[in-house]
UniProtKB/TrEMBL annotation:
Location in or out of the cell: Cytoplasm
SUPFAM superfamilies, per the entry: PRC-barrel domain, Translation proteins
UniProt entry tagged with the keyword Cytoplasm: yes
Assembly description: Binds ribosomal protein uS19.
GO cellular component: cytoplasm; ribosome
GO biological process per UniProt: ribosomal small subunit biogenesis; rRNA processing
Function: An accessory protein needed during the final step in the assembly of 30S ribosomal subunit, possibly for assembly of the head region. Essential for efficient processing of 16S rRNA. May be needed both before and after RbfA during the maturation of 16S rRNA. It has affinity for free ribosomal 30S subunits but not for 70S ribosomes.
Membership in a protein family: Belongs to the RimM family.
The protein's name in its UniProt record: Ribosome maturation factor RimM
Swiss-Prot/TrEMBL keywords: Chaperone, Cytoplasm, Ribosome biogenesis, rRNA processing
Residue ranges annotated for the Ribosome maturation factor RimM PRC barrel domain, each copy included: 103-169
Entry domain remark: The PRC barrel domain binds ribosomal protein uS19.
Residue ranges annotated for the RimM N-terminal domain, each copy included: 9-88
């Protein structure tokens, strides 16, 4: 399994017990969706390695306490500490309405209520405090915040996101 075929689930952030249990900080709005997993891919070096789960359950808000079959001691847990966890894209829950996954909207057109078609989404920058649509239009890049107040409609059939941008934002990039 390649990383491109998977989505990032979370990261192992600490040990929970001397029996090798670990706590995973999940990157999801619905942690309960992943409470009964049977396996997960752990990123070790440049490889995704399948790990099977004896037991996993929610721990506080968005932490998942996992007891892996292969990890039964503190030193075993130390080996995977800080590792990222992945699941196949096919396991992503389907979203409806204006909800979307960042990877899903790459290639969508963006239609602004004032400027019309302002380009195509080439990526989403989520390394900033506010995620941004990266939009290409005629060799110019336009950055628009990913916010519910800006996104008015998502049309999966036509692969178009309709937005109402703050006054002057798009003009900054097109002038």
């Amino acid at each position: 399994m390649q990383k491109e075929e998977c989505f990032y689930l979370g990261k192992i952030v600490s040990k929970y017990s001397f029996k090798g249990e670990v706590l995973v900080k999940l990157d999801t709005d619905d942690p309960e969706t992943y409470e009964n997993m049977e396996s997960v891919f752990v990123s070790l070096g440049n490889n995704l390695v399948p790990f099977f789960i004896d037991k996993c359950r929610l721990h506080k808000s968005n932490l998942l306490r996992i007891d892996f079959e292969e990890v039964k001691t503190e030193s075993d847990a130390d080996r995977i500490m800080g590792s990222k966890l992945y699941l196949p894209l096919a396991m992503l829950p389907k979203l409806t309405g204006n909800k979307f996954y960042f990877h899903e909207i790459i290639g969508f057109n963006v239609h602004d209520s004032i400027h019309g078609n302002i380009g195509t989404i080439t990526g989403v920058n989520d390394t900033t405090s506010q995620a941004l649509f990266e939009i290409e239009k005629e060799d110019k890049q336009i950055l628009i915040p990913v916010r519910d107040e800006i996104i008015t409609k998502l049309d999966r059939e036509t692969k178009t996101i309709y937005v109402t941008t703050p006054e002057g934002l798009v003009d900054l990039y097109l002038e």
